[in-house]
Amino acid sequence: MSYKSNNNKQNKTYPVGIIGGGQLALMLVEAAKERDIKVCVQTKSLKDPGSLKADFVIEADPLQIKGNKNLLNECEKIIFENEWIKVDKLKQLSSHKNFVPDLDSISPLVDRISQKKFIKKLGLPSPNWMQMKESKKIDEQFKDWKFPVMAKNFKGGYDGKGNRKIVDQEDLNSFFNHNNPEEWLIEEWVEYEKEFALVGSRDSSGKIRLFPLVETFQSNNICQWVLSPANTTYDINIFALNIFSSIVNELDYVGVLSIEFFFGNMGLLINEIAPRTHNSGHFSIEACNSSQFDQHICISTGINPPEIKMKSEGSLMINLLGLKKNFPLSIENRIERLSNINGGYIHWYGKSKETIGRKMGHITFLLDEKSYEERFLKSKKLIDEVNRIWPSPYN
Q: Strand 214-219 to strand 267-274: parallel, antiparallel, or no bridges (unpaired)?
């Protein structure tokens, strides 16, 4: 494979390059194609989802700096499929202006510890936490905590990976003995009633556009389905909006950003921040006039993004998670049967291997019922219908 060495913007072939090649990259590529924008993707394999529709692929690990350099040589702007990047190395390769979001903006969000410190700095609500490496201080700080607690790997966790519930002191001691304290933090256990998520964008002029606050439903720490909009109050919506605005304005953040929330008797608490598009925003592809992927592509290429509007009263998005090898229906059979459900929009990620719990695709339904209660009941019926064909591996 040959690469251009000319770094002059006018001679670069692709308006957008994506570091990472999973399903988020695939949907970013699809959004770019809707606007006739060419995209280059850097990913490990030509079989990765992001490679399937990209105009050009650099086959290299997204963390490989040589591959990043080649991507920069090909593309005017670089965006990220996920936050697992080497910020310091990327800063040595190029001007911050090549990246969306800017490397300084994304830097506090690339791992859980830096996120927690940033959230604390802004005085935003989140669960109490401490770094596990401060083990000598834990006995003193821990006295007001109660078990269970949550141990979280400080980097790279998703879909429940990198999380471990600690049930008592013996369990905590055992965890210390078998894990590197430098890599973990401890967070207080939150007894929440609901989980919400908010996806929005901020453009280079500072204008913020928000998708509706949604409710996410989890099993085994993996999102099963998303109902939009969530059943909330005006005060909760305004508080979530203010939290989002505080974060992106403080960072001078440009692009799409997502926030996961816990909600319960402690109010609205930030669970995690994702500096990228997010699973909870997939509904926007069909349910909104401009999807989260369209917003990010527009902002990264200098297009003024549309104001976000729902095209229906609500929506339901169901993740299609990998099942065990001996499941009686083949993938092809499942997809064919799902396509016969009235009103469903199937997104298949084209992953080469199905493993238990892996996100293989999703299906979205638009809901025209006027009230949340009616939309919730309709959603439960649709979920049952989908589960008869493609059940959750965790039910």
A: unpaired
